[in-house]
Structure formats: structure tokens, C-alpha cells
UniProtKB/TrEMBL annotation:
Family designation: Belongs to the Cob(I)alamin adenosyltransferase family.
Ranges for domain Cobalamin adenosyltransferase-like: 3-167
Pfam families per UniProt: Cob_adeno_trans
Reactions that this protein is recorded to catalyse: 2 cob(II)yrinate a,c diamide + reduced [electron-transfer flavoprotein] + 2 ATP = 2 adenosylcob(III)yrinate a,c-diamide + 2 triphosphate + oxidized [electron-transfer flavoprotein] + 3 H(+); 2 cob(II)alamin + reduced [electron-transfer flavoprotein] + 2 ATP = 2 adenosylcob(III)alamin + 2 triphosphate + oxidized [electron-transfer flavoprotein] + 3 H(+)
Keyword rRNA-binding carried by entry: no
Protein's UniProt name: Corrinoid adenosyltransferase
Example GO BP: cobalamin biosynthetic process
Keywords carried by this UniProt record: ATP-binding, Cobalamin biosynthesis, Nucleotide-binding, Transferase
Subunit structure: Homotrimer.
Length: 189
């Protein structure tokens, strides 16, 4: 099988049920999700040992779910019966968030992306995820989409923020506080 097909040489690409121009908002949305998936794969390649075995397992599951998100956004016409992303996935992310957040030190100020290399890369995932969410919102203004994809991406960016802090906490690396920030968060711990 050849990887190249030449069918996109005129600036169009295939989606489920038709073809669109390559810079269509639909392609931008699922293309940004694909970009995010690459960064998640990079994080997985950085994670070694038992210290992060739980996070590595979660991240691998997230990679599959990101493919599902892209698939759900790739339909020309709304096809709810074929959707893969559901509210249950969002709820599961919230459970993971709550579990990991218990390990993190109280947060009082904004923090800068950084600390450990894995944590820094998770912050890249967070920002690309936010962009994917914005692209999905834009797409949703033009056509009907699976609303659970938007919810999933919203929660996923929170997940990346929390586990970036969890990685630092487990490694004994302090988060880098934004020094010009006032205390903006109230600790619940």
C-alpha cells in the first residue's frame, strides 16, 4: 500500500461522507486534536518506571479517545448513532482529576509552565488542548457537532494542568509561581 494517494493535491481532503478544503474549520478542529495526540505520545515516551505508571496508562487511554474525538468531528452530517465520545468519558476524566489533585500542594497563585521536563511537556499538551477546544467551538458555530467532544476537551485541558503539577509533586519539584500574581485561589486542603 502506498501512503500517498494524490487525491489531496488540489487542496481538498476526505471526511466521513464527503470532501472539504484542507483549511476548513472541520479539518482545523480534528487536525489540532491530532497534533495534541502527538504531544501526548511524546509525554508517554518520557515516562518511565513505576512512579508514573498510573498516568502513563491514563495517557495511553486518552490517545485512543483523542482519535475518537477526531472521528466524531469528521462527519459531513451529524451522525449521533456513530459517536464514540460520551459524557461517561468526561466523568471519568473528572475522577482522574480529583484523584491526582489530592497529591498536589495547595495552589494560591498562577504558576508558570515548567518544573520537570514531563511536567513542561504536559503544559504544552494543555495549551494545544485549549486550542483544539477553541477550534471545536468555532466548528460548532457552523455545523452540528457532538457536544461531548467539546466537554471532553475542556476537561482534558484541566487534566493536563493537574497532572503536570502531580508530576512535579511526585518528583519533589516545586511549581514555579508567577511572581507578579496576587493570591487568586483559595485552598480547599
Amino acid at each position: 500500500m502506498k501512503v500517498y494517494t494524490r487525491t489531496g493535491d488540489k487542496g481538498e481532503t476526505s471526511v466521513i461522507g464527503g470532501r472539504v478544503i484542507k483549511d476548513d474549520n472541520q479539518v482545523e478542529a480534528y487536525g489540532t486534536i491530532d497534533e495534541l495526540n502527538c504531544f501526548v505520545g511524546q509525554v508517554i515516551s518520557l515516562v518511565e518506571g513505576e512512579l508514573f505508571a498510573d498516568l502513563k496508562e491514563q495517557l495511553l487511554e486518552i490517545q485512543h479517545e483523542l482519535f475518537d474525538c477526531g472521528s466524531d468531528l469528521a462527519f459531513v452530517k451529524l451522525s449521533e448513532s456513530k459517536y464514540k465520545v460520551t459524557g461517561e468519558l468526561v466523568e471519568r476524566l473528572e475522577l482522574w482529576l480529583d484523584t491526582c489533585e489530592k497529591e498536589n500542594p495547595p495552589l494560591e497563585r498562577f504558576i508558570l509552565p515548567g518544573g520537570d521536563l514531563i511536567s513542561s511537556t504536559l503544559h504544552v499538551c494543555r495549551t494545544v488542548c485549549r486550542r483544539a477546544e477553541r477550534r471545536t467551538v468555532t466548528l460548532g458555530k457552523e455545523k452540528d457537532i457532538n457536544p461531548d467532544v467539546r466537554k471532553y476537551l475542556n476537561r482534558l485541558s484541566d487534566y493536563f494542568f493537574v497532572i503536570a503539577r502531580t508530576v512535579n509533586a511526585r518528583k519533589g519539584v516545586a511549581d514555579i509561581e508567577y511572581v507578579r500574581s496576587q493570591k487568586v485561589f483559595k485552598s480547599e486542603k
